Amino acid sequence: MGLIPDWKPIHYSPEDVIVPYFVQDTPAARQDIANQYTTISRLDQGIGLILEELRQAGFEDNTLVIYSSDNGIPFPTGRTNLFDPGIAEPYLVSSPYTPERWGQESDAMVSLLDIVPTVLDWFGLDYPTYKLLGPNPVQLTGKSVLPVLKEE
Questions:
Q1: For position 2, what pLDDT does the model report?
Q2: Which residues contact 107 (CB under 8 A, 6 or more apart)?
């Protein structure tokens, strides 16, 4: 638990957490969930600190912010599994051009494959045409999530 000067730790009590349906309700599981909530609170505050730095540096109005993780919750049927708990990863996209969506949740299905198309879309760039080891050009499999910020 390293210290960050601007971080105010929030600790959760194992007795107060809600145990997801796919996790056995044991003292060890409750402690793990409480610890995870503390970690998520630290992450949330960290993103807030980054956004504040962008504002203070004058880049709040022209910076696209993307945050994601590469796995789901570290419990049974979670991480490395294609069950709902395993594919429920954090994915935050914040654009200064759609402040009406700040703080909102979306039901859009997105993945890490969408980051490159989103960044290319942000800069108005096309994906370059090239080939690797064969006659067919390489193609992106993801899609830009910027349209989701305008309309669900």
A1: 65
A2: 152
For 45, 114, 119, 151, the CA distances from 128, given in Å and listed in that order, are 37, 16, 13, 27
Q: Output the six-digit token pair for 57.
A: 């540096």
Reading the block at residue 137, the tokens are: 């050009």
Model confidence over 52-81: pLDDT tens digits?
999 999 999 999 999 998 777 788 887 777
Q: In sequence order, what DSSP letters do the residues of the chain get, joined into one string?
A: ----TT-------TTTSPPPTTS---HHHHHHHHHHHHHHHHHHHHHHHHHHHHHHTT-TTS--EEEE-SS--SSTT-TT--SHHHH---EEEE-TT-GGGTT--------GGGHHHHHHHHHT-PPPP-BSSSSSBP------SHHHHH--
pLDDT at 6 over 80: no
pLDDT bucket at 152, cuts 50 / 70 / 90: confident
Give the model's confidence band at 1: pLDDT under 50 very low, under 70 low, under 90 confident, else very high.
Answer: low
